[in-house]
Amino acid sequence: MGKNLEDKLLDSDSDTVKWVKVDNEKDVRKGLDEQKYYGAAIFEKDFSKHAMSQTQKVVMDSKKQEMQDKVKSGEIPPEQAKQMQSQMAKSGASQDIKVKRAEFKTITNKGANMQASQISSNVLNGIGDNLNKQITQQSLDTLEKQDVKVSANEIEGLTNPVKVADKQVHKVKDHQGNGNASFLMFMPVWISSIVASILLFFAFRTSDNIKISHRLIASLGQLGVGVLT
């Protein structure tokens, strides 16, 4: 999931925003301090795993309960149930799943340039909002295909799987004329939100909604993506 999104951002040929991959958050912050980037998007190391953890837990709990009900009803013989439990233990499927929200951090460099940082802020906010919307829809589609019912106390975790942390650095300096000195031409900020939506659409369109375990195995290493204009 995260790697797919990263590739879409880096392959984007948008005239409004240029993305570059940075190895770690320390280098991202150094680039912001040196005014190389107008903003940054930082995905945590286990973003994909955590983003789908609630969905995976709901599915696994549902399947376990389904098996227990079939054993009680006699539909599954006790001996067969033991074999199934043994297979689940070997594969690790019987282990409890730790649910945790995925973390996505955005940093906007307010001191670099007012209009550029505003565009960057809109792009980053759009990505954060759309991440939650897209992952939520992906989770609901998965649960529907697995024929899993969701309880009321599980809804919140499914509909808000990503924790978005926004931060601003480097306040606008007095001599910068509120950041407008080098950027007098109007640029439509709404384009940035459209860019974010389109990139996320294509990133999630190619994601497999059924094979949960395949997506959860691959984790995205911590990276920073600088926003240049």
Automatic annotation (TrEMBL):
Keyword Flavoprotein (UniProt): no
Domain of life: Bacteria
Localization per record: Membrane
One GO MF term: ABC-type transporter activity
Any one GO CC term of the record: membrane
Transmembrane region(s): 183-204
Keywords linked to the UniProt accession: Membrane, Transmembrane, Transmembrane helix
This protein's name: Phage infection protein
Natural source organism: Staphylococcus gallinarum
